[in-house]
């Protein structure tokens, strides 16, 4: 990891530790105030515990033009991204995406869409609905490795992170606390419970918290739809397509709507927010990831609504290209932040215990 980024957080954290004005703002400050000296692993943990709500910055009396020039949200965001790049396997892919994410996502979606269109031209093994365009076996052969390989990469990355921050054997209580805080997005409500100042320094709002929840639950619903469809196919010998009132369709459509609305809302909030209070170098990569995830939801909805038209083969190729790009890029985009944040919350639960 970059020493100068670590040292800057160490400088600012030392000042924050002496001031303690923000003690009740979020999970970062109790963890910060529990330390007297800040090891590199401690700073990495604090960075991934931070949700960049920015309330501490707007409340701080030591920001510029004060000589201390504190900007803790920015400093932690830079260390956070640097930690993902340092621990990710293989690391060069993460560095490339965080700086050129939009272009990489667009190129991959277009390239994979053309690939699926070419496969379609070779003919399908037969089937109904989407399987008339691309067989079920072909989809499994393509997407199963594309799903498993990122999981392996994330497992290696998180193991490196856990060892760096001094994590130990987990207890059930740690997992329960961390999952509850994740589901409720507690750290996006700050210690006051009024929301955060992400978009406007003078106004507390729950908008960012709600958009995060929409994205999280939308993604989980889409994953559940795929899982239920897999069980129906292999266990109950009931292959797709399914009617609208079936469980896979209800889960998938509701998940797609939440994903699309949540990602659109997140982009709108990020466009209004002050870039200088985050990692400026990674801003394009963050927008690229959010746009890609939102496009996965949107293209899935369009595919459902227009699935009975002549546009279906083209829409299927585009949607599958987006999904494949998303899976393969997951360990190297901001999607990984959800896994690191959960690991940071688990470690924080250990600290409190």
Features:
353 residues; mainly alpha; 13 helices; 68% helix; elongated
Low-confidence stretches are none
Radius of gyration: 22 Å
Number of domains: 2
Q: Outline, from the CA principal axes?
A: elongated
Oligomer: single chain
Number of helices: 13
Mind describing the biggest β-sheet? none
Overall strand count: 0
% residues in beta strands: under 5%
What average pLDDT do the residues reach?
87
Q: Which structural category do the helix and sheet elements fall into?
A: mainly alpha
**What is the CA–CA distance across the termini?**
29 Å
Residues in helices, as a percent range: 55-70%
Organism: Falsiruegeria mediterranea M17
Keywords: Membrane, Transmembrane, Transmembrane helix
Protein name: 4Fe-4S ferredoxin-type domain-containing protein
Tell me what you see in this structure:
With 353 residues, this protein is mostly helical. It folds into two domains: 3-84, no CATH class; 88-352, no CATH class. It is 68% helix and 0% strand. It contains 13 helices and no strands. The protein has helices spanning 3-19, 28-33, 40-49, 55-59, 72-87, 91-121, 136-164, 172-184, 207-234, 247-272, 283-305, 312-329, 336-352. Helix 1 crosses helix 5 and helix 3 (40-49) crosses helix 5. The longest helix is centred in the N-terminal third of the chain and has 31 residues, at 91-121. 41% of the residues are buried. The chain crosses the membrane at residues 101-119, 139-158, 214-236, 248-269, 281-305, 311-332. Keywords: Membrane, Transmembrane, Transmembrane helix.
